[in-house]
Amino acid sequence: MKQKPYFLIVVAAFALILVLSGSSMFKTLQPGERGVIFRKFSTGLDKENIFMPGFHVIAPWNDLHIYDVKEQKSEEMMDVLDKSGLSLNIDVSVRFNPIYNKIGYLHEIFGKNYINQLVVPEVRSSVRQVAGRYTAEEIYSTQRKEVEDAIITETSLILKKNNIQMKALLIRSINLPAKIKQAIESKLQQEQEALAYQFKLDREQSEAERKRIAAEGEAKANKIINSSLTDALLKMRGIEATIELSKSPNSKVVVIGSGKDGMPLILGNN
Fold first, then answer.
1. Alpha-carbon torsion 101, 107, 110, 116, what sign?
2. Consecutive H or E run containing 154
3. Which of 2, 64, 228, 239 has the smallest set of CB atoms within 10 Å of its CB?
4. Three-state SS at 84
């Protein structure tokens, strides 16, 4: 019975803490959220143990920092310089999310404002560095895919080192000064026309070569045939034909030796 006042004091103190802390002790993390705790009176920031979605009770003197780890998107339009110092405008879109089990390290260095502190500056830096290795024409047309791949690779690596997973990066548009753009497009058109003309010449040359080879083959074949048609061979073929005709039941008159060069002359076929 003597312990009852002490017990009531403890209960009252606990109730007072609940009242003073309000709802700060009870945290519910939604799907797509993660939490990292900061214990100000003991171990500090706990970077290894990440709070998962669900209901959690947190001591009122500790802080639970909740991060949205769903995929996010940032669109950046920036002015960059090409290899020769020409200014051009590039519009980039990047999709990313924090690496789930690394938000403690992300929080320690960049905090919740990591998009403006980390993602945006690194994307801009990578785009500018890569663009500086190419000419405006290469970036705009001839090597655009190579430029985009380089930006993706370099941005992805630097973000991953800082606990951000990049899902995709897309160059949405590249804008050049009007005169430069017109000059590049005119050059590309002339190159396409030159390629088309060369293709036509190559095709006509191939067709002419085919006809020449065919004509030479035909002439060679005729020469071989003519050289093999001797008088003796012709007479033999004539005699063979006459013998075959003589086997026919139709009546006919065959005059031996009356044809040209003594070949049989066939008359009166019925």
1. positive
2. helix 144-161
3. 2
4. coil
> What's the pTM?
0.59
Q: What b/e sequence results for 81-109 when a residue is b if at least 16 CB atoms lie within 10 Å of its CB, and e otherwise?
A: ebeeeeebebebbbebbbbeebbbbbbee
Gyration radius from the chain CA atoms = 46
List the one residue out of 182, 159, 183, 180 whose CA is nearest residue 169: 159
Hey, is 160 helix, strand or coil?
Answer: helix
SS3 state at 24: coil
**d(C-alpha 88, C-alpha 78), whole Å:** 8
Q: How far, CA to CA in Å, does 230 sit from each of 52, 72, 225, 235, 236?
A: 102, 92, 10, 9, 10
CA separation (Å) from 26 to 10, 58, 66, 67? Answer: 21, 6, 13, 16
Rounded-to-integer distance, Cα 107 and Cα 162, Å: 11
DSSP codes, 48-88: S-PBPSEEEE--TTEEEEEEE-S-EEEEEEEEEE-TTS-EE
pLDDT in tens, 60-95: 899 999 999 999 999 999 888 888 888 888 999 999
End-to-end CA distance of the chain: 150
User: 230 by DSSP, 3-state: which?
Assistant: coil
Whole-angstrom distance, CA of residue 189 vs CA of residue 195? 10
The per-residue pLDDT of the chain, averaged, comes to: 79
What is the DSSP pairing of strand 87-98 with strand 72-81?
A: antiparallel
